[in-house]
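> @MW can you paste both from yesterday?
MW: sure, first one:
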Amino acid sequence: MAPIQQPTPRPSDASAPVPPAPPAPGVPPRPAASAASATSATSATKSKSKPKQAKPHRPRSAAMPAMPANPVHITDDERQFRAWMWVTTSLLAITLLSVSVPLAATIYGVHLLAAFGTSLAVAGALPLSVRLPWVAAGLSAAGLLSFALLASGSDGPPWPWPVTSIIAQGALLIVLGLMFEWRVGFITWVAAVVVTFPFAFVDAGAAANMVTGAAVTALAFSIAVLVAQRRLIGVELFRERAHSASEQQRRLLVEERNRIARELHDVVAHGLSIIHVQATSAPYRVEGLSEGAKTEFAEIAVSARAAMTEMRQLLGVLRSADTAAETAPQPGLAELPELAASVERAGVPVTLGVAESLPDAGLAATAAYRIVQEALSNVVRHAPGAPTFVSVEMHADDLVVCIDNEAATAAPAPDAKGGGHGLIGIDERAALLGGRAEYGARPDGGYRVLATLPIGSDGGTA
């Protein structure tokens, strides 16, 4: 016998509320207003006659720590994405710093310390942009302006936007475009263009360099914004699909519970009708009943009749507009041989083993029949031709139903995949009687369904 896999419970969607912050102790009370001092003299004589009662101290609202109304919860994927961005930007910053410092000192004639400072500002803005976007934007703009001023005496190399600055600014805008709203990156791009725009009027080479740097960085920022929007749309679609799947699961569960309730209506109504008939005929069948006993039997009959009426009304609420009324009685364990024969005609060999002295009526018998029916339907749909073994027996006070099928001998139909009501119905029927259902794949490629139904909870009779 292969081990049974317990169905994993779904995590609850509800989250625990965050408790409010405790009041800050030791805050001095608010001083009395000056207008209150005018009435202190008149109330002094009254206060001498009776003792003062200490009022509960209420801390000032200014002493309360500020808490965000909606705290932002960062998912594991977002945290991992930020970590990768920080590592990437740090490596790129180190590379740019090692290249731009000697480049600024040798080609542009900038003092070594000044070259190190401006290069550190431009390159260091990259890792800072992951957590502090506005600080990174200001630091990058300051580094570009400082380098343009210090390298204004150079003749020949690209100026005021050297190649390293274009790469650094483009990378900065890509990070801002991917991680933050587009306004942050746009303001950063505008700030870099504005601080270096006056140098475009120096000569034609500076103007061409200015246009090239602004165009390249704008293109990089535009691509990053498009990628971020696509990523955002993908996340929203994933959330909507997960929400739709959850809603679909809830709808299937409600539909299955309604169907079970409609099926069990006949069982409950049959018991109520027996109570009604026995209570109504008791005065005629039993001789020597007192008037009090006759009145009590009459009240029992009235209560049973009212319960039957309410059951019919409840059934009308549960039945949808396109659901036909069921007139046939609900099946029990006696109908299992007929069910097995119908499944064998569908091409699935079934070996049926039903113990003796089993309850032939009641909720447990009906639930056991429906569980076997659902399991055999799954075998026909998902494992065509698989030999199947069905056993129903008693263990102590429990009715144990086991359906084992071997591996399929034919390929399932193309439309066999997908979530149906079978396993949901098995779970609900077992839970209705206070039992449990277990199901799972076997190591040999087959499948097993095992349900335990307490007999004492439904009043079934053997």
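MW: second:
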Amino acid sequence: MTRRSCAIYATGIVCAHLLIVGIALLVAQVFQTLVQNRLKKEITLTEGSRVFDTWKNPPPPVYMQYFFFNVSNPDEFMAGKKAVVTQVGPYTYREYRPRENVTFMENGSMVSAFSPKTFVFRPDLSVGDPEVDVVTTVNIPAVAVMNKVKDSFWMSTLVSGMMRTTKAGIFMTRPVHEILWGFKDPLLSKIHKMKPEIEEYFGLMYMKNGSLDDHFVLHTGEKDYMDYTKIFSWNGKSELKWWTSNQSNMINGTDGSTFHPLLKRDERLYIFSSDLCRSIHVSFVKDVEVKGIPAYRFAPPRDVLASPEENPANAGFCVPAGNCLGTGVIKVSVCRKDAPVVISFPHFYLADKKYAEGVDGMSPNQEDHQTYLDLNPKTGIPVRASKRAQINIILNKIGSFLITKNLNETIFPVVFINETVVIDNASAAKLRKLLLISMLMSNFPLLIIAIGAIMLLIFIVLMVRARRKKTTTKDDTAYTPVSYKQEDPSEISQYGNIKNGSNITMSQLPSEKS
């Protein structure tokens, strides 16, 4: 066997081994499993892990936008007509949300932390100055007090007198800054003198700028990657006490800022929202891409805030039991000091039409009003998100207060909140690099198969060329048959008629001649 033949057969053997090994690794998913195990180990809340520092001090900027609904016709509404509102905003604040007092528990399987939020006004992203711009909206303190005392004739009479003295009505006109961050309310101040436990200041975000309100104990994911950052307890509670069913009182999922790696499209992800006083779920919507990073978009479906008729599981959110609103709204008075507060998506998106039609100025649409999360499925990291909610107040007739005698029951919009985040460029570059390395490692068997396929082509070419050369050599060394033709008479020698061969004759010896 020649060296050339040895080289050809060696190529064939190597090719076969590469194809066999590559296909075997691909079928067994060896490298995919290695990559997944590595991600499970790295994406845990442990000192020195790849995600711990970014969880403790999130680098992407978070912005909180407030859109108020300014009431154009308060007097007409009090007379029984439909309210007309105009959306005013945004008033934008940069939100800083580091984790503080981080302490590991249960041998590192859990971590305790406070989640304070600090807000800094961004005039360049706002429509005006919140300390100058005024808005006419529902007088939430007055309406809350009226609903609190409505079952007591004496207390209702007392509060009615206080409202006349302080000139408090169903609506108030105040600067945006006061409505958000707090002001000393005249009616609450009078009540505070009688009941010191009643706070005399009111604001939608009163005492929430920099305060340590939310304390979480989370699973680190060290024992099970599926439990990564799932909430074990919130403010010392492992379950809620507000609602009327065990399922409704469960604290499920994460706080919405982190999720476990290796997400699937058919998963239902759970988020606990302290603003909603409950857990909700989000479902896969579509594939998207953010700054070159692939992501799955998850969003709350209609059944999250559906009425019990549409989704019986929501019956537990009716307090008292059986006292339910329609689809798209949830009454959260139980966790808002009995104030008639209702939460919905902005402009009553995904809600029954009657709520949007009950107030002029509502125009619900998916693009502006849908809450969504864009999550990288490999790591579970949010690359873009928008949490949108609307605070409403129930306004209706209260028999013990004549001021309400002409009111038609209305879920009245006060403010729509849009909390947004997009991954910053530096974090996006790091994530793209991580995903590239992960992809290369996961697809290493395909590289082996590709090399094996190339060598297979080379082997085939060499074999074809060798076969052709062998055929040519045989043709060059074959015998050619003798061609018989008639001899030329001129070529007949004097010794005989045969040109080729021996011509033997007998000549006379000398002795014989004599």
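> thanks! The mean pLDDT is 85.
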